[in-house]
Structure formats: C-alpha cells, structure tokens
Amino acid sequence: MRILVMHGPNLNLLGKRETSIYGQLDFEAVNGMIEKKALSLGVTAEIFQSNHEGAIIDKLHEAMGKYDAVVLNAGAYTHTSYAIMDAIKAIGLPVVEVHMSNIHAREAFRHTSVIAPACVGQIAGFGAMSYTLALTAVVNWVKDKR
Amino acid sequence: MRILVMHGPNLNLLGKRETSIYGQLDFEAVNGMIEKKALSLGVTAEIFQSNHEGAIIDKLHEAMGKYDAVVLNAGAYTHTSYAIMDAIKAIGLPVVEVHMSNIHAREAFRHTSVIAPACVGQIAGFGAMSYTLALTAVVNWVKDKR
Amino acid sequence: MRILVMHGPNLNLLGKRETSIYGQLDFEAVNGMIEKKALSLGVTAEIFQSNHEGAIIDKLHEAMGKYDAVVLNAGAYTHTSYAIMDAIKAIGLPVVEVHMSNIHAREAFRHTSVIAPACVGQIAGFGAMSYTLALTAVVNWVKDKR
Amino acid sequence: MRILVMHGPNLNLLGKRETSIYGQLDFEAVNGMIEKKALSLGVTAEIFQSNHEGAIIDKLHEAMGKYDAVVLNAGAYTHTSYAIMDAIKAIGLPVVEVHMSNIHAREAFRHTSVIAPACVGQIAGFGAMSYTLALTAVVNWVKDKR
Amino acid sequence: MRILVMHGPNLNLLGKRETSIYGQLDFEAVNGMIEKKALSLGVTAEIFQSNHEGAIIDKLHEAMGKYDAVVLNAGAYTHTSYAIMDAIKAIGLPVVEVHMSNIHAREAFRHTSVIAPACVGQIAGFGAMSYTLALTAVVNWVKDKR
Amino acid sequence: MRILVMHGPNLNLLGKRETSIYGQLDFEAVNGMIEKKALSLGVTAEIFQSNHEGAIIDKLHEAMGKYDAVVLNAGAYTHTSYAIMDAIKAIGLPVVEVHMSNIHAREAFRHTSVIAPACVGQIAGFGAMSYTLALTAVVNWVKDKR
Amino acid sequence: MRILVMHGPNLNLLGKRETSIYGQLDFEAVNGMIEKKALSLGVTAEIFQSNHEGAIIDKLHEAMGKYDAVVLNAGAYTHTSYAIMDAIKAIGLPVVEVHMSNIHAREAFRHTSVIAPACVGQIAGFGAMSYTLALTAVVNWVKDKR
Amino acid sequence: MRILVMHGPNLNLLGKRETSIYGQLDFEAVNGMIEKKALSLGVTAEIFQSNHEGAIIDKLHEAMGKYDAVVLNAGAYTHTSYAIMDAIKAIGLPVVEVHMSNIHAREAFRHTSVIAPACVGQIAGFGAMSYTLALTAVVNWVKDKR
Amino acid sequence: MRILVMHGPNLNLLGKRETSIYGQLDFEAVNGMIEKKALSLGVTAEIFQSNHEGAIIDKLHEAMGKYDAVVLNAGAYTHTSYAIMDAIKAIGLPVVEVHMSNIHAREAFRHTSVIAPACVGQIAGFGAMSYTLALTAVVNWVKDKR
Amino acid sequence: MRILVMHGPNLNLLGKRETSIYGQLDFEAVNGMIEKKALSLGVTAEIFQSNHEGAIIDKLHEAMGKYDAVVLNAGAYTHTSYAIMDAIKAIGLPVVEVHMSNIHAREAFRHTSVIAPACVGQIAGFGAMSYTLALTAVVNWVKDKR
Amino acid sequence: MRILVMHGPNLNLLGKRETSIYGQLDFEAVNGMIEKKALSLGVTAEIFQSNHEGAIIDKLHEAMGKYDAVVLNAGAYTHTSYAIMDAIKAIGLPVVEVHMSNIHAREAFRHTSVIAPACVGQIAGFGAMSYTLALTAVVNWVKDKR
Amino acid sequence: MRILVMHGPNLNLLGKRETSIYGQLDFEAVNGMIEKKALSLGVTAEIFQSNHEGAIIDKLHEAMGKYDAVVLNAGAYTHTSYAIMDAIKAIGLPVVEVHMSNIHAREAFRHTSVIAPACVGQIAGFGAMSYTLALTAVVNWVKDKR
Description:
Twelve copies of one chain form a homododecamer.
Chain A: E1 2-7, H1 19-22, H2 27-41, E2 44-49, H3 53-63, E3 69-73, H4 82-91, E4 95-99, E5 121-124, H5 129-145
Parallel strand pairs in A: 1-2, 1-3, 3-4, 4-5
Helix pairs in contact in A: 2-5, 3-4
C-alpha cells in the first residue's frame, strides 16, 4: 500500500516556528517519525511539502493511480481553500485531515475546515503523533474497504 | 495507567441506529474493541455511558484521582454543553474528544465543539476505530508528560 | 395501538404557571383529556413527564418495541436539545411534536425547533387541544403506513 | 358556523407536483376531504385558491362578517408576506396556519413563518390531514370562545 | 399640478383595523382630508388603493405623463418589494414615502424600507396628517425644481 | 419546439428606464430580437410580460403541456419570490434564468436568486443578448435530453 | 405654544458643507425659515445647536416645563445615542425627529435611528423644508392631544 | 424568612478548580460564609448543589411554598437553559442571579444570560461575596414587597 | 477610604422618569441612601453626575490618587462607550458597575456592557439598593486587596 | 479577434470528476467544442488551464495587448479570490464569467462570485455549452463596442 | 504650513496608562517629539487634546481657514463616532488618522474605523513615531496637491 | 541593515491600472522611490514582487537570517491569506503592512486585514509614499529594539 503524506504552508518551518504551539520537533524529525511508522505498518509513505495552494492541487491530481490514500495537513489553506476541497472530491482517494495543534481550541477562524466535507476523518491536537495516528487510521480504513 | 472511556447520549443504541452514519458494530462490540486495545496498550479502561449531561459531569468529577486520562465521546452535548467544558477544565485531566462520524462533514451545528477548547485533541470520522486511535493517543500523551 | 405521550420540563406545573399563556387547565386535567381522547380513538396512551433531558432520552429509547408512536412536548428543550433530536432519529418511531402555545408567535428563541427535522409534524397553539389533535394525527398516520 | 379554507400559491397543482413531498392526493381529493370533514363537524366550509398575494388579502378582507374563522395554507407567501400578516391582524378573525409538509424539517427559509404572530396556531406535516386537523381545531376554538 | 396618492395593502381597512396603532379615522375620512388639503394647495389629487403589489406597479407605470408626483404609502410592501422600488426608479417621478405609524418604533422588520432609496423623502408617525404633510412636501418640492 | 419567454416586473419599461443599466433598446425591439432568434433556431417563442407575481405563477402553470421550455427574467421577484421558485419546481419544465444586467455586480440584494435552485442555468449581463443566448441554450438543452 | 428646535452635530456648518447632500441654504437661512414658519403657525420657536451629545441631553432636560414640544435633528448621534433616546423618554414631551437628507437612501449606518422608538414621528429628505413640515406636524399633534 | 441558595454545575469543585478565576475558597468555606450571612440577616438559608439541569428545575419547583426567595448561581447553564428560565417564571418566587466571576469580562458566550429575563437582578464578579451581597439584596427585596 | 460614586446620563431625572422601571425614589433620595450607607461603612463617598461622556472620562482621570475606588452607573453610555472603558483601564482603580434596572431583562441593546471587561464586577436590578450593595462590595474588595 | 479561454483549478479533471455534476465530456472534448465554436465565429481561441491562483493572475496580465477578450471559469477561486478580481479590473479587457454547473443551485459558498463585479456577465449551468455561449456573447460584446 | 495635531480621549494619560500597549513615553514627551518633527519639516504644529467628542468636533470646525491639515488620533471614538466622521467631511481639510498601537491586531471592536472613509490615510502601530510619520505624510500630501 | 520590500498580486501593473485609485506612478518609479529612500536611510532594500501566494510565503521564509525587517504590501491577499499571516508569525522578523490606497475607505472586504495581527503596524492611503513612510518606520523600529 502506498500513502502520500502532504504538508501545506509553513510546515517546513516546524521546530523553528512557534514551538509553544507546534512542539520542539523539527520538520525532518517529524518526517522521520512518519517514515518509521509507515515501515512498522508495512506501507510506503511519500512525503511532500509546498507553500503553494496550486502545487498541493497538482500533487493531489498526480496521486490518482499512484497512491492508495492521502494524509493531508493543509495548514492555513484548511480554512479557505474550496479548490483543495474540490480536488479531494475529484480524485476519489481517501484523504485523512491532520493538524498538529487542536485547531478547535485556537482562534475562531481555525475552527472551520472547508476541506473536511471531502475527507474521511480528522485528527487534531497531538503534535507529530497526529500524523502517525492518521497513517494507522488510513491504512486500516483502506484494508477495511478491500 | 487507568483510562476512563465515556460515551454520551444515544451511543448505547450503536448498531441499532442510523447504521449508514455510525456503522454496523453494536455498542458491546465497540466496547470489546476498546477493551482489547487497552489490553494491548497495557492499560486499564473503564467504560461509562449516560444520556444525562449531569451524570457525565458527575463522572468527570469522580475521575479526579482515579484515572490518568479520559477518552470522551460527548455525542450531541459536544455542541452545546459549556457545563461539560467547564468540568473538563476543572478536573485537570487530559481529555481526548472522539467522534465516530466526521462531524465536520455533517450538519452545520455539528461543526462546532464547545468542549474542544478544554481538550487535548480531537479524533473524528473513523467509526469504532476513533476510540482505539484515541486510546493510543492519550496513553502516549500521558507517557510523554511524565 | 400504543402511544407514548411525553411532557418535558415545567409542564407538570400546568395550571399553576403563566395561565395567560398556557391556559387554566391543570396538569391532571390535561392528562385526563388525553386519556379520554385515546379511549375514543381505541388506543392506549401512557403518559410520562420529566424535567430531565437525559430522562426524556432514556424514555424514548425504552419506547422502541413497546409503543407504536410518540406524542412529544419537549418544552424548552425543543429549542436546544440536539440529543433529543438524535434520540428520535435513533428509535425509528413516528414522533409528533406538540406545543400548547403558538411558539412561532412568542420570543424569537422559541421560533426554532431543533427536534423538528426528526419529527413527522408539529401542532402548536391550541392549548390542551394540541395534544388531542396530535393523538388523532399520529393514530391516523400509523394506520396509513400499515 | 362558516369556515373559509384558503389555499395559497401552487397548491392547485397538488398531486401533480413533487408528490414525494406533498403526497399523491390531487387538489380535488384534498378539497373533498375538507368538505367531508366540515360536514361531520356540522359546519360549512368554503374553499378558495389563488396564486396572487393580493387576491389572498382581498379574500381575507371579504371574510369579515361572512365567516367565523379561517384555515389558511399560504404556501410560499408564509415566509415573506408581511402584508398577509397585517391582513390577518386587521380582520380580527381566528386564523389557523396549515402546511401539508413539515416546514420545520425542510430548507431553512421555510422554518420561519412571518404570518404566525397573527395566527391562533400552526399545524404542519400531516399532508391532507393537516387541513382536517385544522378544521377540528378552529371549530373547537370558536366554540370555546363563545 | 396633479398628484397621485397611493395606498398599499390593508389601508382600505383604516378605522376598522388596529385603531390603537392607526387611529380612529376611517379610510374615507383620511381620503377626505387628503382631498381637502389638495384643494387648499391648489392641486389635483387622485386617490388609488390596492392590495396587489403588481397593481401598484402597473399604476406607477401609468403615472408617467399623467401626474407630476406621487405620495405613496406602500404598507407592508415597503419592507420587501424591490419590484416597487424598481418601478419608482423607472418612472422618474418624485415619490414621497408615507407611513401613518412611526415604523421605526415598531417591530424590527418595519425599520427597513427597501423603497426608500428611490424616494425623495419619508414622513412617518403622524396618522392621517402624514399624508397631508407629504402633499405639502411634494408640491413644494416640484415647485422648487421648476 | 415551443418556448415561453417571460418578462417580470418593470421590463415593459425597457428603453424608457435607467438606460445606463439596461441599455437603449426598448421593449418591442428586445422582443423583436427574441422572435428573430427563435425563427433562426426553428422554434416558436411566445412572449409574456406581467408586473404581477401571481400572474407569473399562473402563466407558469399554464405552460405545462403547452411549451417545451421557459426563458424567464423574473425581474426583482428573482430575489424574493419563493412562490415562483415553487412554481418552477412544480411544472417540471426546463427554465433558464435571464438577467439583462450583471446582477452579481450590482447592489447586494441582487446577488441572490431564490429561483436559481429550480432553474437549469443562469445568463446575466449581456443586455438583450442575454435572451437570445438563453434561447440558444434552452433549445440545445431540450434537444440533448430527447 | 412654545417649541424647541434642536440641531445636533455639524449642522452649524450647513451651506458650507457637502451642499450636494444638504443643499445650498446656510445655517442662518434655515433658522430664518424655521422662525418664519413658527410665526405663521402662531407659536414661539427657540433654536439650539450643539456638537456635544451631553449638551443635547442637558437641553432636553431643561425643556421640561418650558416647552410644549421638540423638533430634533440629532445629526449623526441619531444612529448611536441611546443616551439621547433615554432623555427623550424621560422628559415626556412630544419629539419629532427631523433629517434634511433622506437617511434611508444613504449609507447603511444611517438607516437605523436609535432615537426613533422614543419619538412621535420622523420626517426626512426635504432639506430645510423638513424642519417646517416638522413644526407643522408637532404643533397640530399638540393641539390634537389637548 | 427562608432563602434557597442554589449552586449549579461544577461549583462543588470550588477551591479545587481554576483558582485564578474563582478564588481560593473551597465549596464548604463559601457555604459557611453564606450561612453566617444568613444568620446575621436573621433568615434561614438552605444550600443545594447539583450538576443536573433537571435536578435544578425539580428543586425550583419544590421551592414553591417552602421558601420566600432564591439565590441562584446556575453556572454554565446560565447561558443555555431556557428550561431553567421557564422554571423561574413558573414558580413566581423572586430569584437573584449570582456569579462569582465577572461573566461580562470573560469569553463571549458567558456575556449572555438566558435566565436573566426571569430574575430580579444580577450580581457578578465578587467571588464568594457575590453570594452574601445577593442574600442581602433578596432579603431586602422581599421585605420591601411585604 | 474614599469612594467616588458616579451617575451617568439621565440619572439626575430619577423619580421623575419612567418610575415603573427605575422606581419612585428621586435623585436626592438615592444619594441620601448612598451617603447613609457610606457613613455606616465608615468611608467617604463623593457623588458626581453628568450627562457628558467626556466629563465622565475627565472625572475618572481626576480620581487617580484622590479615591480608592469607584462605583459607576454609566447609564446608556454603558452600551457604547469604549472611551469610558479605556479610561477605567487607564486609571487602575477598582470600578464596580451598577444598574438600577436589570439590564439583562430589558431591550437587547442593554444586554451588552462594553465597560464590563474593565470593571471588577456588576450589580443590576435592585433599584437604589444596587448602589448600596456596590458600596459594600467595593469597600470589602479594597480591604481584601490591602 | 483573439479570445483567451481560461480554466481554473480542477477543470483539467473534467470527465474524470463528479460526472453527475459536470457531465461526461472530458477536458479535451470540451476544448474541442470551444475551438470549433471559435472557428465558426471567425475568431481565434487560446486555451489555458492552471490550478495556481497566481498563474491565473500572471496569464491575465499577459493578456493585455494580446487578446481582445477573456472567457474565464475560475473554478473554486471564483468564491474567494479578490486578487483575480483585482487583476480583471486592472487589465481592462472584457471578461465573461463561466460555470459549467449552476453554481446558484449548489452549496451556499458557491452562490457568491467575488470576481463578478469586475466581469461583463455570467453564464452558468449549461455544461460545456456554457463556454460556447460565452464565446458567442463576448465576441458580440466586443463587436458592439467597436 | 500649519498642522493641527489632535489627541482624543485618554491620550493625556500616556505613559501612566497600559504601558505594555502604548509605550513608556508620557504625553509631554510625545508632544515634544511632534513639535521637534514639525520644526524639522518647517511647519507649525498646534497640539490639542480632549476627552469630549463634542469638543473634538468643535475644534475640527475651528480648523477651517486656520490650518492646512490635521493629524488625528481619535482614540476610542475612532470606532463609534459618525459625528466626527461627518465633521471631517464637512471641513474639507486633509486629515490623517493615527493610532499608537496596531488597532488591527487588538480586540475586534478596534478593527473598524468609522472615521477612515473621511480620511486621507491611516498610520497605526508605531507608538509615538505614528505621529511623526503622519506629520511627514500630511505635509508631503499638502505639498503634492499645491 | 537590510530590508525586504515585498509587493503582492497586481502591483506590477501600477501606473497601468486604475490610476484614480493607485496614482500615476508606474511600478518602476515606485521602486525607484523606495531605493532612493533606502539610500537616504543608509539601509539596503531588496524588492520582490509576485502574484503567487505561495511565492510570497516562500520568500518570507527565505528572509530569515538574510534581512532585518520586511515591508509588505500583500495586495488582495491581505484580506484572505491566513497562510501569509502564519508565515509572518513563523519567521519572527518585524513586518510593516503597507497599502497605497486607504483600504479602510474602500469596499467592505478591504477593511479587514487578516495579516495585521502578525505585523508591527500598518500604513495605508499615501500612494507610493506609503512605502517610504514604512521604510522609515521599520528602520527606526529595528534601531529601537537593538
């Protein structure tokens, strides 16, 4: 099984940025945890990051036929990008929405996810562990459907 | 480590109720999965269900000193009960918010969780697996803090 | 045919409370009218009252298999209780929503019924007669479906 | 006792139109049921239909002195016509608001009735039976006031 | 100079209707006052009343070339009829908006006039005198423009 | 193929009214263009205009069985008339919504079309050409469905 | 009869300020018209102007026992000053609200008058004539009550 | 004179919970202060606490005939419970609303009290002293009415 | 200890104004009660009244160094004056907000206090007693802090 | 005449994506229809697609001097991109807004076009035909202006 | 060139008040910086402060003919005073809006400036430097216009 | 000291675009003024422009360690881009927000800056001078912090 793990805007700065909210782990360390978890689940994880909304959409399109599922942290685009939501609906792959912080406990604008209606589920608030929980979730989800 | 797993209103009807949304598993089967997961994580899980907002608050109060953490599916009280939110803040235990369906993809009133600001994180959309992911999350969360 | 007639919060004070809005009849007299109407319709009516949201949900759950339909005046919970709405959906019985006063002609918060989307229909504004009209309605509704 | 039963816009198409919402009965059949019910209640029912807001107002004005009460299904004008509301207040007759579908369970714009503050009560969701329940209600209401 | 004085829905019931709000004068008496005022101002006043939004629009269209100005009490259509507003803009005649009651001191929906942006000015709250003030105003307004 | 072309309130004043918004062509000229276009498309076009919401609804009802499709410029009723929307749904004919001006670029109240959910599509902003584009659109739409 | 005519903030600049909205007449000329009208009505008019909300309230208080009625153009305080509204209610004198421009046809914030609920009526849009109409109105209003 | 002092949800945790907001005094100490104040005022105070909305309503009902007045801190139910508001109206006893923190200076949802329209007055922000001030207030209030 | 007691707009008319809301006591009598209470508490109370928002701000500034605390009834400025709120924050003295009527039970605009976030607490609904309760509260509050 | 036809995000997936909404035609087929229509209109059409908001803006800038008009389907950016709206205003070319589905009949967020105020007109709901209607419209529009 | 620099409510307390927001400089020091800057720009600066909305309006009126431009920090009146906005429009002088703190980064009510539509521009967030930047801006602005 | 000056979408068209709003200076001339000002302040200014939200975020990331501060005109992204706001917070550099037009005096959507909470301050309305004022401001701001 092949999983695409996508990081949206500003997540490349993890560990350098607002560590009181996002934790001390830097971007490479988080990716290392993701890869280790993938290994233990017996799946392949490709990791992608972009600050460009358009590039995230392009990558979602490319995912069709290449991956079985997507783990997506769309960063601040979560709250405004109907275009990413349309892309998720269009590609027909299961997508799990991930957030490192508990977005529902922060500023009001972060309480709304416009991409959620196109996703399987949402995991928020567990720092880097949000990604590994999501990997577990999506792998089991795909197995269940087969 | 001892974990309290709480089910709010109507969850006792699982498997009998709107199976297109909540899945085929009945309440006992879901609890079986939770207990099995607890076992594999080496922790104790007590399971509690009530349709009474006040009983959920009473139980949260009793949890102080008896449990290390709480996994809480507050059902429809999630969207209106500031009293449960106050209770979570008051007891000082880590609480993980769980939903079987992806509440952010359903009716508008379900997009808002008034208890979220008092919780560690939220997991929604994975059916019974939402609970086992939450158990994993909260056990690791507590270990990290120690 | 067996009908459960449920009274929500404060309805036990009928006749003692704001008689300009709810009329002069006291709680026992209203129940007497309900029972008399049930008799004339050839059905059995059980009457239940509680000020507890949770108890109303518990009772709705118990109704499955015991009653053919429910007549429900949820009182002020009408306007806030998504948990009662979920319970109505869960049990799969026809529920008719009743109000003694014309809630659409009173304070703004009373214009919205959050339980309505789960009910067959609504009757409001006819005092104690609202209940007897609802009994007639639900009995005919059940007969039509058979 | 003389009762005026008024049908607003599009109700003349009953039975031809969206039968999943409004039922299989056509307009003539509904009116037949109304007349039969009036007969059994010992009252006279005149039936009126118009797609014109102004004509509904004109007819309400004419009702003064000719009828004892009105049963009114204002159709979509229910949600916007303050002019009909003013007419109801002006004529001083008891008016019962009727809807065949449960308007509170449909699109948001149908949840608000601007004519409700001028009506005695509201009956919604019982198909053609909504009219016969309303006849019963208004006849009893008038008798009570005498 | 020729002035068209228009009464909208329900104003024909003046004196019969809610006299605590609209005063004791009946429709004929109000029109008598209007005609007397016109006489004293040396102008001709035609009086028109309709409960039909469309008839009010038709009449406004006919006013082009026949009248120098319009005094309009659009009744409850004041608050919803963009079509009347468009008609006023289209005909290019000066229109003075009149209300017998002080609409800004009543229910919230009456605080907004959607026709106001197309009118010269508004006079509200003086009972039948609102019309005579408006006649004075519009006659002077037309004289000023000449 | 027979097409009904409907003009709502104030459109009879075209060419006399606010020509900076609606253009210099008068009503007859616009209708001439519509008829010429119908001819070139090999279809029959009947043209109807009314300032009365009720008359528009009556005409829509009559269209059943007589026309294959409708081109409708509902004027200002576009933004408020749920009754026309219900009529469009009721008759089951394809209706194309037309506006001469770009309503989405004007006052805020004109941005919302309450009839749109019942229509096939919308064409706005091209003056008289909006009608001829709509004729082309609806004729092709009907051919496609056959 | 004694009438207090009050001008609120910025009205002292009349004739110097935004003449496309308020007209060419300067402050003295407007006051001259008011005094002339008072003379012709056989009443005394005192004229007062202040840019201070507090001074307007003080003056309203002083009016008790000294004047029979008040004509008030509260300028921009119209839209925000609940304190002036309370003052009008407190003094018990009839107050007529005046605006030179048609406030209902200007920016949205000017459509709401928070003082209106305490006033007899409102006259807006007739330039300096708004004041003379108001004088006529209030004088007749007082005579009617006697 | 007999006064019922009611504590709503979570108040039993006083002194254990968020002491920066609610102060250091624990629940017993607060109740001690209340009883001491009652003694000094020469009245009897019964103290009641529950986390159940329904239990609070039940207790209010029981208060009729047993107490002269109620001091009520409804906790988080203050902001949502129309059922408690209805109960207060129904029992006809004077109720003073109390909050230990200044709810108007906290999160937005705490600024609105839905029970306030049924209460005599509100005291908020003085910690345990809020209760003793309320006792003084309600005792004097009752004396004034006698 | 020295306390400044401030009355905002229109409070000088107490006893003359809307006595059904504010009670029969006139301004002097209320001040007498305040002074008597101050005496019994062993503190000095200076009393100040103004209808001017600016004068209230000036007086608050002057209070620094001269008084130990402030009791403030800001009247209608309570609901709009961010400037008074800023002044309270700026001077650093404890301020208790007072209202004679229960503002939370009146018109919607009175439910919001924009000065509350800068105040220690709020007392509303007890007529003149609101002031004496506030005096007691603020004196004890200051003693507690010492 | 040269026309730029622009497709926004996700439109490259046409025919693969949600065919119940967007139809069976794939992206190449739609473009073929556009080119064929351009040929029949005697104009040149360049076709452009991008998922990047910035790339759409860049392309609009490049259009100045190279094209006579633009046909733009901005996809989901229609509802949020003030930057595209600014770009349209900046380049001064006529732009016709196109949507394959009837956006006014879908989710609420799709009812608002923030780019509409900068466009000539809008065509929505006719599938691929929306583009060919738009080509016809814009070509005629340009010819009219010459 | 003569510039009027105006300070609104509470700014006289600078340096004594909330220094974490407004900085350590006191009022005199800020004025000293303004005067030094004026000197270096070769212009005259008069400095004015008032806590009275009315006094600010009076001063703006007096500025006509005496000053070439105004630098205005309206303090909290910025967010509510349409009267000051009207005054700025009335006097026809260029006014630059100044704030020491970044109002757009503080409480929501401070994000809206009702005076902005009448001002040339706005400078916020630079402490005392906001004034000197504004002086530079307005002096250059006036020179450009000459 | 090194300053990064960033121009967002459409600013490259300056001088070609809506000169009544943005002025006559073209993009190169504005940049020339910026460079000249930088020279006079003794700092280095790098100038960057992009229409891509993602490219602006990338550039902000690169600024860490290379620049001392940023002057940012985010164009229309100002009003929607939480991703740029997150980027500003993440990089920890002082950012001054610049707008050539007075955004607070234009369309309502331009009144809100979602990036403001992450910026030091805002300068708007002075055309090209907005940039030079911002350079001065940020250079002084950085010097102050050292």
